[in-house]
Amino acid sequence: MTAIRYDRAPGEQSTLTEEQGETTSGRALVYTIGLALAVILTATSFWVANTSLLWGPGVPLGLAVLAIAQMGVHLVFFLHITTGPDNTNNVLALAFGVLIVFLVVAGSLWIMANLNDNMMPPAELMNLHMQH
Amino acid sequence: MNVAVAIQDIHRDALPSASEAGPAPKRIVVAYGFWIFLLSDIVMFSALFAAYAVLVRATAGGPTGAQLFNQASAAIETACLLASSFTCGLMSLAVGSRRRAATYFLAVVTFVLGAAFLALEIREFADMIARGATPQRSAFLSAFFALVGCHGLHVAAGLVWLAVMMAQVAIKGFRASVERRLFCFALFWHALDIIWVALFTVVYLMGVLP
């Protein structure tokens, strides 16, 4: 029994020993639950994209929510990211990564949409030039 | 006596935090460093995703995603990669409990599923190129091949890594350095699956919406 509590390595399942109730089958169960949830979410995604029952404009948002939920399932059940105190460093690094990803994707889309709007002269503007 | 017990309890509650405990074991440092690399890799993919999202309508009169993408193929690829991620997780458990036969078996299953994914993707690319949808055709196709191809390259690198790791297990056995590498490989493989989730949603599902 060590007296020092280190952070948990990313991807490492809880460091409890087998006497403390963490058996290999219990650990395999975590992966199995993750697989089941991921399969359900993936199947739902494919169904949502192909059904005509849902309101069309809402479908992309629904797909995004399903994808983010599935990434969360992968992080929790496959990479064993938790909110525990021994996981703070891993979660902070992940949060920073997510922030950068968000800035890159949202920022690019925003700027390029603006550029597209500004580079394409609207019809009235073209007519102003014609008046000369 | 009671006082001593109480003091011990206090000590157990107030263990030194990780920063006061001195350097962490190499196992944790290596895995954390690899975690940082994976996050930077994901940031790189986010740039490719941004490029794809910006250029998805720039088809230059060429074929669009709705005409090119085959959802059945994408669904099978997704299933292969997800199952492969699952068996990779089970392989980590087998490594943790030093079961050599189970490790080999699960590594082979992981490899075969990953190779099946890659074969399907290469077939899809070849099919698209045969129909004239090459990366030079339009900005949309350039972005598509860059994004999906980069993920495919990562999977190919992962397969090579897995084969090398099995050779190391066979020759060196489960020594600490080999175990650390296997651990990093599992992180890598799970991260690739997370990227694929974003990829099949953005490219193959949103790409064919009317």
Descriptive report:
- The complex is a heterodimer of chains A (132) and B (210).
- By secondary structure, chain A is mainly alpha-helical.
- Chain A has 2 domains: 8-82; 85-132.
- Chain A is 66% helix and 0% strand.
- Chain A has helices at 24-50, 59-78, 88-119, 123-130.
- In chain A, helix 1 (24-50) runs antiparallel to helix 2.
- Chain A is flat.
- Chain A starts with 23 loop residues before the first helix and ends with a helix.
- In chain A, 22% of the residues are buried.
- Chain B is mainly alpha-helical.
- Chain B has a single domain, classed as Cytochrome c oxidase, subunit III, four-helix bundle (Four Helix Bundle (Hemerythrin (Met), subunit A)).
- Chain B contains 7 helices and no strands.
- Chain B has helices at 2-13, 26-55, 65-68, 71-96, 100-130, 139-172, 176-205.
- In chain B, helix 6 runs antiparallel to helix 7.
- The longest helix of chain B has 34 residues, at 139-172.
- The radius of gyration of chain B is 22 Å and the shape is globular.
- The mean pLDDT of chain B is 90.
- Chains A and B meet through helix 1, helix 2 and helix 3 of A and helix 2, helix 4 and helix 7 of B.
In short:
With 132 residues, chain A is mainly α. Chain A has helices at residues 24-50, 59-78, 88-119, 123-130. In chain A, helix 1 (24-50) runs antiparallel to helix 2 (59-78).
Protein chain pair with the most extensive contact, residues per chain:
A-B, 53 and 59 residues
Largest sheet of chain A: none
Radius of gyration of chain A from the CA trace?
24 Å
Number of strands of chain B: 0
Helicity of chain A, as a percent range: 55-70%
Structural class of chain B: mainly alpha
Whole-number tally of structural domains of chain A: 2
Tally the helices of chain A: what do you get?
4
Content-based structural category of chain A? mainly alpha
